[in-house]
């Protein structure tokens, strides 16, 4: 039986939401405080996804400055109705609360509109268009009477599409299959006259699950689907390759099948570093409701192909080298909290990438001179050929393994007052920097490299010969240790106390599935 490999979108791309228009599927995932925000991917077969653009690509749309990397844009839903694409999303601001925003576009590649703030409490907003064209907004908020209902409440109001505001009464829909189990991520679907409310329960980690309720009328009353959870890996042992599955969104294919995108993780010895990734699972509708993974009951690393989809070519595992030849960075690169194209940009003519050294450290909640891409394979190598253009004390530039602003590691070129040049490995933990090693460098242009695997990230310098600078155990970068919602990003950065100086990166290479 022809199969495809899961995850279909590897690396930190959580909270997937999907819609189809004709032969085209569009997927949106959370990017938190990374900018541009809310990446949109496109596919024709559900298996092979390419970046299409971002919902948030202008700082005037959303301000992410001051936010931790795991705050920002959370758990969007994408829908299409009568020629317009809609995205609703939470802007989470730590303890300062969250707000809900609606974006629209006629082309999902963009441009997307400025956001419209919706008067909606809570997180994980979603939209459902009923047969009569009415649009129903759902989300998850703290329940008014948690001692009776459990803490989480899924609620609904009508969205007036013309005025772009919520209208009419608020309906409390459901408190989850198990009260107190943090019901969230609601999405509504209608099948054979019945409304199915699909939700997540158990939190986004080990106990994560897909649960469901159903109703005869869109506003309820909803009754728990007694088969809940419909999908979970919470009962599976440590040997299970995929964990934490949940946060499902469903889509029908032109061939008449239904598939779900869910988030899941691939842990090693109980911790994961690649973040929450997008997995694709078949769904079968029965008169009892949707059955997830009907043949296997689980989300596998390999699944049967959707009907009518040709077998995708096997991943070639070849290194991807970016020479930064285009006028702008490719869509896989991202910065933090705002545009970085004035700080990190390809050099036309000369080639390579210029990094304008910035006083903003990686540990700040601003926009450092930093660009990165999600780490997508546990065993991988990232390397870059880097030079400080006019080295001076206080300057540093190089590679970064970034989990969050309080936890990351850098392998940087530096220069001392006496002109001694070194490559220095530094780990930042809870905001405290520790120098883990240094090797002298003689060449002006040096390869800085990191090899990651199950056990560690090992940092090397190639300066004529290859020398090892040091290594950091992999779980240091895991979400379990770091907290928050993101996986590791691999990137390039440059800082200097004065904000003066420049680094040049001739190329950046990512080698997947290194032996
Ligand atoms: C998101 C919630 C969740 O809002 O994690 O896995 C939160 N589920 O639905 C942040 O991604």
Automatic annotation (TrEMBL):
Hydrolase keyword on record: yes
Keywords noted in UniProt: Glycosidase, Hydrolase
Pfam families assigned: GH43_C2, Glyco_hydro_43
Gene Ontology molecular function terms on file: hydrolase activity, hydrolyzing O-glycosyl compounds
Catalytic site: 15 (proton acceptor), 184 (proton donor)
GO biological process, one term: carbohydrate metabolic process
Ranges for domain Beta-xylosidase C-terminal Concanavalin A-like: 321-510
Cited InterPro entries: ConA-like_dom_sf, GH43_C2, Glyco_hydro_43, Glyco_hydro_beta-prop_sf, Glycosyl_Hydrlase_43
Top-level taxon: Bacteria
CDD domains: GH43_XynB-like
Site (Important for catalytic activity, responsible for pKa modulation of the active site Glu and correct orientation of both the proton donor and substrate): 124
Similarity remark: Belongs to the glycosyl hydrolase 43 family.
Protein name: Xylosidase
